[in-house]
Hints:
heterodimer; A: 95 residues; alpha+beta; 4 strands; 40% helix; B: 342 residues; alpha/beta; seven-stranded mixed β-sheet; 39% helix
Amino acid sequence: MKIIQSALAGTLESSDLLVKIEPNEKLEIVINSDVNKQFGQQIRQVVEETLAQLNVDNGLIIIDDKGALDCVITARVQSAVLRATKEQAQWSQLI
Amino acid sequence: MIQLTFKTLSSIKDQAVLDSIKNLLQSVDLNLDPQIDNFIIGLFEQQIIACAGLDHNVIKCVAVHPNYQGSSVTLSLIQQVIELAHDKGLYHLFLYTKPENIDLFKACGFYPIVELNNTITLMENTPVGISHYCQSLIKERKPDTCGAIVMNANPFTNGHLYLTEQAAKQVDWLYIFVVSEDASLFSADVRYRLVKEGVRHLSNVTVLPGSPYIISKATFPSYFLKEQTLIEQSYMAIDLLIFRQYIAPALSIAKRFVGTEPHSEVTNAYNHAMMDWLQSENKSTSPIIEVIEIARVRHADEVISASRVRSLLMQKKYQDVHALVPPSTWAYIEQHYVIKNQ
């Protein structure tokens, strides 16, 4: 999927995360987390897997994480990507 | 944790509301900024205990009542502002705050760009904004001694042309940044194109579109206020420090050229600020940039300026305009103004 516009998903509330996506030539992921030391690597892995599942290989993905669970991270990244690509979600394939 | 109710105010007509916002700002040593077009207020038991203003893509006047300060109130407040900006199609956001609050806003996803004398800091909501911009500049980098001119060129005149030709003689390579904020009579695209066409005959000049980091509503909001002479020294300093610390090093710019400014108070003040913030050793640890002021070229005993051209356009004195602009600008004006008015 091609990232064609900026998009947001999520919040800055505790246990949530804010995902910002912008068009970018290559794929670049920046993670800013309260729990970066313990979970930074795991968060990155969840984000990368979610993006791979959606066939996203471009875009600047900025994550402000407030200690969200993996399932929340996946959901927020999916919403942000779908908003940034203007594509209809194929939910049966995502769940 | 307290539950706040948030409201967006696009213009504040209620004097009582305005007064409580002013009081709230005062309690954290801030004044109301007249350029704010939207306020988010946070209410608790019918009292305004938090507020944040949005001026185009810049968040300012953020205050939380001292009794309710804590990161969760600030987080929800900033969250509201981010969503408001998002609804307006503004994604790249800037934020002014005092340096002691940097950590608080880092937690909201903002990253510091420059700090001014422990008084004010400009932050942006991306960790890679300014660095990505500098990387894009580095692609344009030329060897040897480089100079720069930042111009609005509203529109490009013989005055700009003269300044460019004089500057290009004094350096190996010259970069022209065309202010990209769309707040002028001529649109950013047109201004950029006319500058490009106007300097095509010079072989050592690169014209670059501006960015939010050069004389934009984020770095220098008072530049875009036409009717008002309020000049914010700190905004000029922020704009010039970004130039000195990020833009100039990316392109090895050692000189910045500027025309003398006899008319506009804002531009004249900016020229003076430039001498100070770019040239003083003690203003920044980044290398100094020599500021070279070039006397404006005259026509019929008056200096040529874009504002004079605009005023002649308004008066439909097209033949007078013709004498002040290069052929490329004239071609555009002839097509869009002269014919339209016949």
